[in-house]
Amino acid sequence: MSVLTAQLEKLVANAKRVKSDEFQSVIDEYRNLFDRYVFRLRPSVGSISLVSCANWTPQLGFSNMTSGTILQRTLASLKDGSVNLKAPDRPTPEKSVQSWLIAQSIANAGRVEAIEKAVSDGHSYWFVSDEIALTTSDDREGSKPVRVVADLLMIRSDENGDSELVNVELKSQRTTETHGQTQKFWQFMGPSQVALWREFVDVMLEGPDRTWKANSKSRGIVIWPNAVRPSKSTSELIARYKSEESIDTICYSGPNYSLRPEPSL
């Protein structure tokens, strides 16, 4: 078994724990706190985190929620005021946009219409999870471990309900290195890993049986700040990423966030 496969199996196992009665019963008990802080449980390779998507505490929360008992204890402490979540000391636009998109999905049964409208490709877009970090390496002798991260993992579904994976990179600065990060996330994925990703999606989204597009290539989205006058070279590069690498680029503006496609020259 490869290192990457082992990590994905751990990710799937933690996703199943998030959906288990052990955790769901605690969520039901503290539903008011979950609604107030727009909390969600985020599975990772190593553990489970309790994360807020409220606009005043974007992406803040508590790590190492290794059992329903620990989750219950944490929420009880938050309820009685013995622990607190404080607003960040400085603006965090990237985390704020991320929380805004996830909060939208929570309110809409997983669907993220802001991305649908910005990409406008006839598909529906569904949030799966975020901040998924994997450590792997290529096969070259002496190569160092490579850490790859998906800021958001989503699926897009066509009118027939056939789905495919999409990884999303969020940035507070405009740099086309971000598109390379989007590519890198899929570089080490073989067929066995794709099967585990699909299992992870099915666990997180639940619902009816999902069908997957045959021979789907990896897809990506970069979300970065709006620019009044994007350069010609940037526009040409973005167009190439879209046509050759299936990576869309959309812009955000705030503080009341909105998304739109990167303009072309």
From TrEMBL:
Instruction: Tell me the domain of life.
Output: Bacteria
The name on file for this protein is Uncharacterized protein
